Amino acid sequence: MIQDIGPSVFHNEYRHIRPRKDDVILMFDSGGAVLCSMSCGRIAFPDIRENDDDAVYLFSIDNTGYFLYRGPAVQKPEGYNFYRLRELRSSSSGPEVFAAFTAYHLWRWYEDNRFCGSCASPMTEDTKERALVCTKCGRMVYPRINPAVIVGVIKDDRLLITRYNRGYSHDALIAGFAEIGETLEQTVAREVMEEAGIRVKNIRYYRSQPWGMAQDLLAGFFCEQDGDDPIRVDDSELASAVYKSRDQIELQSAQLSLTNEMMTVFKEGRAGQEIKW
Ligand SMILES: [Zn+2]
């Protein structure tokens, strides 16, 4: 999956540090596209200008520090262009795609919290932890992560496959965000009922995945349909929701998403197996 970048190692411990010569900088335009070069499926981010005061530390991959540029707009260096995450996802793989998704999540958070929600004064970066502090009232804001579920519903050895009305146009699974006051298992049951009109049982956790594109943390679950109610598709969200046998499921070639991995696991008859860590 996108976060499986081994043998490279991701370090997200917060550090209040300045850039070094070999670090890289991630710069987003107002629409969330990231500045990089792409050659033969390899992504490269611009090298950092030393002691750039407009850069905030995000994370490291191996020994390379990734910094977010928060200053005024600058001219893009030759050979670099702004690419949307979807473009990066479909044309490349490797640690840089995960870096772009994760940096996007943090960029979105910094952008959404430029001013205090209590007194509207400017926010500034804390020096001890990943937090923003109001310059006037001291209110602190921490990064926001939205929990969401991906659900593989099984019935008679077939998997419930959806297609969205808009956006992602390939085979997908039931998915949705957790609402306040419910457990993830309750999210699973509610989302399946809302999107497909059926009840589920034997809900079991599979794996999780950070997915910066929607600033979410995805939790994958498998379960079975409870009863024989017919599927009622929520056509405000879905174009279709049908049970498919293993050979009918269409996978993506790049194994980046939890959805694709769960469909793969089902196709290969491993959906009932426990994952050991
Ligand atoms: Zn304030």
Would you summarize the structure shown here?
The chain is an alpha+beta fold and 277 residues long. It has helices at residues 85-91, 95-112, 184-196, 258-267, and strands at 10-11, 24-26, 34-39, 42-44, 55-61, 64-69, 81-83, 123-125, 132-134, 140-141, 146-155, 158-164, 174-177, 199-211, 216-226, 238-244.
Plain-language structure description:
This protein has 277 residues and is α+β, with helices and mostly antiparallel strands. It has 3 domains: 10-111, Nucleoside Triphosphate Pyrophosphohydrolase (Alpha-Beta Complex), CATH 3.90.79; 113-143, no CATH class; 146-267, Nucleoside Triphosphate Pyrophosphohydrolase, CATH 3.90.79.10. 17% of the residues lie in helices and 32% in strands. The protein contains 4 helices and 16 strands. The chain has helices spanning 85-91, 95-112, 184-196, 258-267, and strands at residues 10-11, 24-26, 34-39, 42-44, 55-61, 64-69, 81-83, 123-125, 132-134, 140-141, 146-155, 158-164, 174-177, 199-211, 216-226, 238-244. The strands form 4 sheets. Strands 11, 12, 13, 14, 15 and 16 form a 6-stranded mixed sheet that branches. Strand 9 and strand 10 form a beta hairpin. The longest helix has 18 residues, at 95-112. Zinc ion binds at residues 116, 118-119, 121, 134, 136-137, 139.
